[in-house]
Amino acid sequence: MQNSAHASPVFVTPDGKARRLATDAASVDGKQRESFIQNLVFDHADVIPMDEIEPAFTPLISLCKELTTPAGSVDNLWMTPDGAIVIGECKLFRNPEARREVVAQALDYANAIARWSYEDLDAAVRQRTKSDTSLYARVTQATPEAERLPMQAFHDAVERRLKAAQFLVLIIGDGIHERAESLTSFLQMHAGLRITLALVDLSVWVLPEGGRLVVPRIPMRTTLIERGVVKIEDGVATVKPPPEPDPRPGRRAYGTTLSEISFYEKVRVDAARKHELREFVAGLSDFGVAPRMERLSMNLERDGFFIGRIETGGGLWVEPILKALGGPAPVSTAAKTYLDALYRIAGKKDGTLSVPVRDLLERPAEWRAAIEGFLSSGDHGTSW
């Protein structure tokens, strides 16, 4: 029986023997399989490829299963050390309900949680886990000390995300079919909460010597579904959308993923400079530059051609380009011209590893021209 969207993997032993793996029998049919997936992602949240979905939402810390909300019970609830909220629904995508209905249901759960305060969420988790351990304690116990937020900062971060309805919603299963993947068109035609939504297909296989191999796949991921209200009446899901944004022609709309939104909240420049930085990065789409998000930084790249990494500390990190100064002449000449321009704009000495963004934004036209010139030198294919 082959219901997964994955072909059966082949395990090759050190002595060269090949063996095709079998589907995990513990997760074969019906509710048993849904329960298996639910427990798997709760006990081993790392099987969810968060770096590919929303890099800012890492690491995931499991809080509880079957969280009671006014809209029903949420299968899984996770949080990150900085208070980001992740909601998970585990469904078999071969079931009829695992199409538009399950998406609308998940969004309805998100809508219900968005009406809570921090105290409401804390109380709901305590009630479900039948424990007096606070939300803050649960998260900090699973977080390295150096990455822990102070209690008030954590409270404020969670409260801010609740008020903004800023969540990541995951619909997790195995054997996602084309019909489920066609949910993309459903989401594109409607506005929902201010969330990112992803379908996660987990294929589970038995290893010859015991244990399991979990192969994740992301058949669908939205960028951002703007805030709206999801209602289910007589089995029909409807959404009231907000006004359409009106970005300038040819410009990429900035802040289109939750990781980008999280980055701009954290980056250490004043409010006016944050707005200028967002506009500046959006404008780089004119040159084909797109931000590649990591947990605490934004890489500026065009097809792998690296032009700098903006870190939440407020600096443009250029060390990889500095290392190119000792390379072949075309590469080193392009790197030196670019770095000289950055140092001149920011008033920094040669060899500085991280150039303050606030200084570069004092002269944005010159910064933009430096980037354009550097990119035009990239015909040699160097990706730094």
Could you give the topology of this structure?
Elements: E1 10-12, E2 18-20, E3 22-23, H1 30-43, H2 50-53, E4 61-69, E5 72-79, E6 85-90, H3 100-114, H4 118-129, H5 135-141, H6 151-164, E7 167-173, H7 178-181, H8 183-188, E8 195-206, E9 212-221, E10 229-233, E11 236-240, H9 258-266, H10 271-283, E12 290-293, E13 297-302, E14 305-311, E15 315-317, H11 319-323, H12 329-346, E16 354-356, H13 357-360, H14 364-376
Parallel strand pairs: 6-7, 7-8
Antiparallel strand pairs: 1-2, 3-8, 4-5, 5-6, 8-9, 10-11, 12-13, 13-14, 14-15, 15-16
Task: Characterize the structure shown.
There is one protein chain. Strands 3, 4, 5, 6, 7, 8 and 9 form a 7-stranded mixed β-sheet that branches. A 5-stranded antiparallel β-sheet has the order 12-13-14-15-16. A two-stranded antiparallel sheet has the order 1-2. Helix 12 packs antiparallel against helix 14 (364-376). It is 36% helix and 24% strand. It has helices at residues 30-43, 50-53, 100-114, 118-129, 135-141, 151-164, 178-181, 183-188, 258-266, 271-283, 319-323, 329-346, 357-360, 364-376; strands at 10-12, 18-20, 22-23, 61-69, 72-79, 85-90, 167-173, 195-206, 212-221, 229-233, 236-240, 290-293, 297-302, 305-311, 315-317, 354-356. A hairpin with a 2-residue loop joins strand 13 (297-302) and strand 14. The protein is globular. The longest helix is centred in the last third of the chain and has 18 residues, at 329-346. Residues 188-192 and 225-255 have low confidence and may be disordered. The protein has 14 helices and 16 strands. The chain has 2 domains: 10-240, no CATH class; 258-380. By secondary structure, the chain is of the alpha+beta class.
